[in-house]
Amino acid sequence: MIVLESKVQVPVPPQKVIPRSRLRKILESRITQFRLALVCAPAGYGKTVLLADWARASSLPVSWLSIAGEEQDGESFLRYLFAAWERVQPEIAKTSLGILLESNSPDIKAVLSAFLNAASQTQNHLIFVLDDFHLIEDKGIHEVLVFLLDHLPSNLHFILAGRSEPPLPLARYRAHQQLLEIRTDELRCTREESAAFLNQSMGFELSAVRIDSLHDDTEGWIAGLQLAALALRSRPEGNDDPRLVSGQHRFIADYLAEDVLERLPVELQDFLMKTSILDRLCGALCEAVTWAKESQELLERLERDNLFLVPLDDQREWFRYHQLFADFLYQELNKRHPQLTSDLHRRAARWYLTHELPEEALRHAIACRDAGLVMQIGEQYFEAKLLSGESRVLTRWLDSFPEQWQFEYPLIGLYRAAVLLFTGALEDSARYVGEVEQRLALEENEETRWPLARVSAVRCSIACFQNDLARAESYANRALQDLPEEDHAFRAVIHHALGDTYRRNGRWEEARICYLRVLDQVHTPTFRIRSVHVYGALADLELQQGRLHESATLWRKALAIIEARESRGIFPLPLIGWVYIRMGEIFYEWNELEKATDYLSNGLERSELGGDVRAMIAAYLLEGHLKLASGDITKAAECLEQARLLAENALFPDWIGRFGRFQLEVWLAQDRLRSAMDWADTMLQDHQFEGQLEKEAAQLTMARALIVRGDPDSLGRAKRSLKDLVEVARAEGRTGVQIEALALQALANWKRGERPGAMIDLENALRLAKPEGYVRLFVDLGLPMARLLQEAQSRGIMPEYVQVLLAAFNSALATPRKSVLPEPLTPREQETLNLIAAGLTNQEIAEQLVVSPETVKKHAASIYNKLGVRSRTQATARARELGLLG
């Protein structure tokens, strides 16, 4: 959502203003004593001018929000409230509140909680002024404000200014002395204020009697005094006109405004009436609506003449009419030139559309009932809103269209179907598509060919959501045949949906082609949003093929779009967190741990705030790996438990496999070899291993567990599994899987005593890994891999890269102590030692090695003698110290 800066700036007081020092003093001295202040009076009593004049001079920080029409629901209201706060305290953007609101469609409860937390950490008093609050009709916004008011810390205060009482529990606030009220009687001008305005500000030399007469007859109504002053200036002979002192100020506005308007030059009258359709005015917008080349000069003239024009910024670029005056001008426009109104709204809509302000453009397009223009706005922005998760906004748009449009314009039905599709209502979506198709089929001709192609495009998306690839391809072919080349939006919809479905089904190259076709489309407003999804999908494809550098490049492109200022508020928070986390994973693999930690910090905070389970699992696993890399095993185990709670109930089998891999690493770091072996036994006995062969993470984890177990049968099973995995990964071009499988295969061969085979596998893995800079894949395999790398170094295998990898191990792993055994262990003793370290009993070891328990005891006694120890515990510790365990 684009925030209009003019709405969060304190308005500039008019050049000729009635001094209200008495009211300013009340606000300055008393506002911090109350939770809420209500400035309530009918139009024309100077509420905005008073508050703006006070806000600009106050010693207190004041956040200002001018209510107009963009606050359609609680979320948009909170975004504007935050924008007003950020203008006064920019550092608020770095809090959880800022992070939540940098995304699209955040959870409102989370935003409210973050708002109050941020407020409680603010040390000084802060005032929020909500001007024209009576314009808000949405019940959800009233509920949001009541919640905030009921939980405000003592240093936060709200001022609501409006024509009528807001639907808030004012009686309760009043009873608890939490409400400061400034109402009509307080806002009436005093006799001294009336005199100062008429004779000093307006430059008259009226007698005391005349001032008293005007003051009494206008009853201190500021708008009445101002209008009277304008009439007196334009028609001095009207000083004694009895209509000026009728005392009926509910009628005086019409009379004086008409009198003032009639006496203005024709071109200025014309300008005033034509621009009355606008909520806010600037020179360029007014020029587009009125075709008056000197629009900026006319605005400045109106301000100088005090013609109810309020500047909204210090640069005097944006203005608004006093609502009383704007209402009168609009009535005059409809009375004098009713045929012009629609065209003026149409011009305004086109200007807003050109300046990428779709909400305002749509409002004016509907006002002039220009369905064609509404469709044009939809073509440009509907998809962007849909992809950014703004389904509520789109539903509101669709509900605001005249009912007959639903039948006259098939695209509206397709838009409705798309919203339902993205919110998971597949049956309702398909029903809407069917209704549109039936209406088009009744008049099938050349003109309906394009709309029918769009119907096929939406049907393709529905089939993709259902993972029905054959049907999706059929609809896609039909749609692409009839869609014009310039229909970039629907072509992108087809290619994106097919790309996701191909990727889901392991058809990598077809997915890549589809994604690249999406990126070939014209950079419409939708492109920023869709491209982040596509760059992420392409990055994942590159990662599948082991290309870390290209994957990082694509994630960086996605992140650059997200972090651009114009992207603020259009991306869902989980998506933002996901991109940061995936970048962190790549830096972790490169062993750039500080950068990985920074990206993780950004990603984890956004994932937790967004409540995205998949991203949180990924974040906790990455954090756990970082903790293990730093030697903090306790914290790594805590991260594992955080991930476990989510993974056990999640529907992401690929992340379950990654969880299992990290679980094994934590057990090995904790020397809980028995736990690892028990887990492996359970997987094998339940045949879960065979059932998860297609899930490489689980397969690689099991292979490593079998290698740690180290008995001949386990090593044989690991080798067979890894061999199959290497062949499949090589055939499918998934280099990352191939590298890890080869590295594990090298460990298995080394443990079996097949040293030449181990070195061949390791060298193959290193040659594939070096161009992309893999580091942690090897380092996280621990001491056994360090020993293999040292052996590779001694043989002169890729010495520079091997040295980089060895340097990434901590000093204990990089330079393990040499064995000083008087006699080396035999292969059978080595197997026995591994099983002792794994926590197996003599009976269990005997069963594993297919020997008698007595033989195991003999092997154990020999091991103890060679290690110079007396117990299993001492043997395990000494063997680990000497680097004998793998």
Summarize the structure.
Helices cover 67% and strands 4% of the residues.
What's the number of helices? Answer: 48
Main beta sheet strand tally, sense and closure: 5 strands, parallel
Number of domains: 6
Query: Would you report the number of β strands?
Result: 9
For CATH, the homologous superfamily of the largest domain is named as Tetratricopeptide repeat domain
Query: Quick check: average pLDDT?
Result: 84
Low-confidence stretches: 238-250, 689-694, 814-819
- CATH class of the largest domain, named Mainly Alpha
Strand order in the sheet with the most strands: 2-4-5-1-6
Global Rg:
37 Å
- CATH-assigned fold name of the largest domain: Serine Threonine Protein Phosphatase 5, Tetratricopeptide repeat
Helix content: 55-70%
Our measurement of the CA-to-CA distance between the termini, rounded to an integer number of angstroms, reads: 56 Å
Gross morphology: elongated
User: How much of the polypeptide forms β-strand, as a percent range?
Assistant: under 5%
Q: Please state the second-level CATH architecture of the largest domain.
A: Alpha Horseshoe
Describe this entry's structure for a reader:
With 886 residues, this protein is mainly alpha-helical. The protein folds into six domains: 5-187, P-loop containing nucleotide triphosphate hydrolases (Rossmann fold); 191-263; 266-338, Orthogonal Bundle (Arc Repressor Mutant, subunit A), CATH 1.10.10; 372-569, Tetratricopeptide repeat domain (Serine Threonine Protein Phosphatase 5, Tetratricopeptide repeat), CATH 1.25.40; 672-814, no CATH class; 827-881, Arc Repressor Mutant, subunit A (Orthogonal Bundle). It contains 48 helices and nine strands. It has a five-stranded parallel beta sheet. Helix 14 (283-290) crosses helix 17 and helix 25 packs antiparallel against helix 26. The longest helix is centred in the C-terminal third of the chain and has 21 residues, at 712-732. The model is unreliable at 238-250, 689-694 and 814-819 (pLDDT under 50).
